[in-house]
Write a structure and sequence with these properties.
Rossmann fold; alpha/beta; 4-stranded parallel β-sheet; globular; 2 domains
């Protein structure tokens, strides 16, 4: 080869290596979009998954959002009825509703939901998996992977493409009022492994691929305020945050998580101005995009939460979030006002049209990724097969049983003897809830003579005092407390007059075996109980598992994923074999 040809070949190779890579083809639907239509794609209002009549105000409102404004997606949440009871959507109603909205949409909708523990968090008739912390207590990564796969299968069968899970927060603060058992624990390395396992499971079946979300960035675990009520603050140095809070997010990104949700919390070490991370370009752009190299969608936490709304007007909050680097606005209180504010911000020059294009391309690419260019409607006849899954129900029970953790048994109270003069007191965490029904049935099946009291927070002091007096002649009292995390409550304590009631029971002559179905930190408030068992979850599988453990039918082997200062450290848990047949069961 001549020198001239060699030089020419070298120049050609150089051009090939350093040429600007070709742009990815524009997602479908983008061509011809107006500025207003592009901005609307960044908005995700809330719906309730029921199927309102075509004449209802709700239906007219939803159709305006979808058809006239052209929002990018919808999130299915729980409705609260007139009695204050949270009501889950019915699967077939939800499918009918979603199909109606998809038919009305010019651009297919990205449907989403908070399926942190499977679809049961929002939809009735689905497998009720335990809370995430139960999976780490059980030490079962494969179960977490199976949870991700089951969540994806259930979600896609009902027309949900995007789940706001896994929770990547490290719950290293016992006083955290809103994360608690939603977290996988306080060890960042352990949380990172389980976050990755859930993500991998949710992506394991291409036919049921669902977008996953690591939340709440940069980490909501070490705060003492609920961002639904006020602006929490993470008081930790930057090095600690990078070595602890960010680890699970790094793991999620490495595992291919599709989206990251922002937190409405101040983080002074990363953002000197006392503003929520949701509106901080230093946190979303500097840390998440530049440091962690996240390329996917950034979605805000709900824009109607007080951690944000107390500081900014609705329109200003929307503009600031997009300015900071968010791609989608979740649950703005007024979707149309959010769109109008962003249109005005672009027209005034505050936000560039190019900035909007970057986000809308990410949104439309996500819609392509879940197959919305090929198919946007759900097949109702396929729903039953997807939801009727005996194997998944057995997996839920297996995790619940492995998670049961015994932290104290000072009088060797366990296993319980069916013939003993036991008294069972169930403290339900909410009025009109059925929590505890399964536990009572299982208990009575094993010990029919047990005296049972079922209480809810409306129980008056006189009634509670009467039960305290009656318990004096019990051989022992088994007190079961249901304490789930709930937005806007501000704590994860026993409700009503239950704390005083339980404290008086513990002082009485009958030893108290305390079973916490939910918050494992309950032992801090009642350290003098004779025995303490925790399940990290309030679902029926955990009720069954608790009873089986109490009567020695299953081995107790769960390990505490958090510390309970000064009473227990992470990793603690007394092991007990199953009782021999004929004893304790």
């Amino acid at each position: 080869m001549s020198t001239t040809r060699t030089v020419a070949a070298g120049l050609l190779l150089t051009c090939v290596l350093f040429a600007t890579p070709p742009k990815k083809p524009a997602p479908p639907w983008l061509r011809g979009m107006t500025l207003r239509q592009k901005i609307a794609q960044l908005v995700v209002p809330v719906v309730f998954g029921d199927n309102p009549s075509s004449r209802s105000a709700d239906n007219k409102k939803y159709l305006r959002w979808v058809k006239d404004i052209g929002v990018g997606g919808l999130i299915v949440a729980n409705r609260v009825n007139g009695n204050g009871l949270v009501v889950n959507a019915q699967p077939y109603e939800m499918v009918t509703f979603i199909n109606r909205m998809q038919k009305a949409a010019r651009v297919p909708l990205l449907m989403s939901a908070d399926f942190e523990r499977g679809a049961s968090m929002r939809v009735a008739g689905t497998v009720r998996f335990p809370y995430p912390m139960a999976y780490t207590a059980a030490g079962d990564l494969e179960a977490a992977r199976a949870l991700g796969a089951a969540t994806a299968r259930e979600a896609r069968a009902m027309g949900i493409h995007w789940v706001f899970a896994p929770v990547a927060d490290v719950n290293n603060n016992p006083d955290n009022p809103i994360i608690n058992i939603r977290s996988f624990g306080e060890d960042p390395d352990m949380v990172a492994k389980f976050v990755a396992a859930f993500t991998e499971g949710a992506h394991s079946d291409p036919a049921n691929y669902v977008l996953t979300t690591a939340k709440h960035f940069p980490g909501h675990g070490d705060v003492t305020a609920d961002s639904h009520l006020e602006l929490p603050k993470l008081e930790a140095p930057a090095d600690r945050i990078r070595g602890l809070e960010l680890k699970p997010f790094e793991s999620a990104i490495a595992a291919g998580v599709d989206t990251v949700m922002t937190a409405h919390m101040a983080v002074p070490a990363l953002e000197p101005e006392e503003i929520p991370a949701t509106v901080s370009s230093r946190i979303l752009g500097g840390v998440l995009r530049d440091e962690l190299k996240f390329k996917g969608l950034i979605v805000t936490d709900a824009m109607d939460m007080a951690g944000l709304t107390k500081m900014f007007t609705r329109g200003e909050a929307a503009v600031r979030a997009i300015e900071a680097g968010a791609d989608m606005l979740l649950m703005p209180p007024d979707p149309e006002a959010a769109v109008e504010a962003l249109v005005a911000a672009v027209r005034s020059g505050r936000i560039s049209a190019k900035r909007i294009d970057v986000s809308v391309r990410r949104v439309l690419a996500a819609k392509q990724k879940v197959g919305l260019a090929r198919k946007k409607l759900v097949e109702p006849e396929a729903v039953a097969d997807a939801l009727d899954n005996a194997e998944a129900a057995l997996q839920a029970l297996a995790v619940a049983e492995k998670a049961v953790t015994l932290l104290k048994d000072a009088r060797q109270s366990l296993p319980l003897q069916p013939a003993a003069r036991n008294c069972l007191i169930v403290m339900n965490g909410a009025r009109l809830s059925t929590a505890g029904d399964r536990l009572i049935r299982e208990f009575r099946r094993r010990s029919p003579e047990t005296r049972v009291r079922w209480l809810d927070p409306s129980a008056v002091p006189a009634e509670l005092d009467r039960i305290i007096a009656e318990s004096a002649d019990c051989a022992q009292v088994i007190a079961a407390g249901f304490i789930a995390v709930a937005a806007n409550r501000g704590n994860v304590a026993l409700p009503g007059d239950f704390p005083r009631f339980l404290a008086e029971l513990v002082k009485g002559p009958a030893p108290v075996v305390l079973v916490s179905l939910g918050n494992p930190y309950l032992l801090r408030s009642f350290p003098d109980v004779a025995a303490y068992l925790t399940t990290y979850s309030t679902v029926e599988a955990s009720e069954t598992a608790a009873v089986r453990a109490l009567f020695g039918e299953i081995p107790i082997r769960g390990k505490l994923p958090v510390s309970i200062p000064p009473l227990a450290k992470a990793g603690d848990g007394m092991e007990r074999p199953a009782a021999p047949v004929g004893r304790g069961n």
